[in-house]
Design brief:
The complex is a heterodimer of chains A (329) and B (291). The relative contact order of chain A is 0.16. The longest helix of chain A has 39 residues. Chain A has 329 residues and is mostly helical. Chain A is globular, with a radius of gyration of 20 Å. Chain B is built from eleven helices and two strands; from the N terminus they run ααααββααααααα. Chain B is globular. Chain B is mostly helical and 291 residues long. In chain B, 74% of the residues lie in helices and 3% in strands. The interface between A and B is large, with 42 and 42 residues.
Chain lengths: 329, 291
Amino acid sequence: MTSPSITASGAKARAFLGFPLILLICVVSSAVLYFVLSQLDSSYAFLAAYTVLQFVALATAWNILGGYAGYVNFGVAAFFATGVYTSVIIYKTVQWPLLVTIPIAAAAAGLLGLGMGYLTLRLRGVFFSIATLALAVVLNTIVVNWSFVGGSRGVYVMRPQEIILFSSYERYLFVVMLVLAIGSVLIARAIENSWLGRGLAALKDDEMAAECAGVPSLRMKLIATTISGALLGAAGAPFPFFVTYVDPPTAFSLSIAVNAIAMPLIGGTATWLGPVIGALLLGTFQQIATVTISSALNLLIVGVVLVIFITVAPNGIIGFVKDLREKRR
Amino acid sequence: MTFSLDLFSNAIVSGILLGGFYCAIAVGITIVFGMLDIVNIAHPAFIMTGGFIAYFANTQFGIDPLAACAIAMIPAYYVGRLLYRFYNVAFEKRGEESLQGLAFFFGLLFIIEVALLLIFGVDYRFVEAPYIGPTIEIGFISIPWRLLIPLVVGLGLVLVIIAFLSRTFIGKAILAVSQDPLALRLVGGSPVKVKEVAFGLSIATAILAGALLIIIQPIEPSFGRDFIGRVFCITVLGGMTSLPGTIVASMILGVSESLTSTFLGPSWSPAIAFGLLLITLAVRPVGIFGR
């Protein structure tokens, strides 16, 4: 009985020690990234980096439910757009600053996740997936018919003239998204190492067995859906200020849903590192490809790469590397 | 908008006509998802492919859209069989159909949509046929031929499939797989072969449904997404495995959408399928005809 408890406490200690280290790595790499981008001295560099980081946040958020619990959320665009339009509503009414808007957007999207989960998570996972797929269509319909948030014609959003501490608004947006992305990754990592992560992994393997062993599966799935939804919404909140013009096709863009699913699956869904790797690779590739080749073709490439990866390397890049290592041993 | 009897009855009639068309789009999903538990969310993409096959044959060679897709159903059947064989080897045998398999069909949906976009562009495309313009007037009710033809073809398609499943050997085998694949293996049948045939059949129906779609209205590649909610709503509402249930659920959806678009505006109708789906999942997940 002693040895398992020793290893368990050892793992705990390692996770505990790991946190400051990870945080340090994040802070240092962020500072380096910011410095390099400042040296480039173009607002495009910051905008491109913002887009990649947005994908890191979205892929990580999706993976909390999709990767850890195995419940596929096709409605990423719905949660993202909930964040986007919460931000638009606040902009058009009380005009609170972005940093106040983000938690409200996260709460709205989290509630949406909770509601969706409550209705469909008691059934088989497939029904949840189908329902989320249709959710994007419904929210799209509501926004198209809602003239206050711009309807189908869209809405213009003015960036604030000045922002303290930053020389331009692009830089400010970049730092906000950087913090959101790192925050999402740290939350995902914390979940992975907690009772929640272990419970989700158990129900992913065999829900019936997990339930019999005393895992409160419905409650865990609901918590995961809420957290995942909230992080997706938070990533959407700065988006109106990023593009300055929002209409339903951009907020509900299929490329958001496809990328948020493709990136974790390509990187590897089992750990927090997988979505980060997938998002950095695929996001950077797309930033280059959109400039050099057409954007439709570049989405086609993402789709093809996704299909190839899930067929050939079902555990993503991380799983592939792990297999190679084990073979060598 | 004011309520009037002729507006109301016209909405009901066009809803039933629309429901006939929905039979054709949903029957493939009832077979594949309801009976065989393969979550082919790329089904609407095959419907769009059918629509563009009809468009291509009609504008290039002047062939009737229905005839073109009736012929295209044969290669589509074999494409479907190949696709299932691939899906079986890549995902079902490894036991990874829930996450990876779903993502596979999602990727497929996306690839087909972007491919159609690159080939045909984002413009709305339409076909020409003698039955697209005229309308039958009975009193104050008007029945356009372009909606009547899909009703007849859609209902006919479901009836043919019902007969196929209950009369033929392979049809009975499909029903057997849907009830108990293990038992079929025990008596010496191969569920994989049977599923392959059923999947091919399902893709073939999607192609025909595409011809009906382009007869009803002009189409563009991203249109398929609107049908994902509809096809699954119909299958779930109809009770998953029941083909009569598919007909009834199609009619319910058609009439609700038609009433909504008459009295609230057409821009609201995409939300109806989802609403019905959510209500069904929350209140009665086994559907109307479910056991």
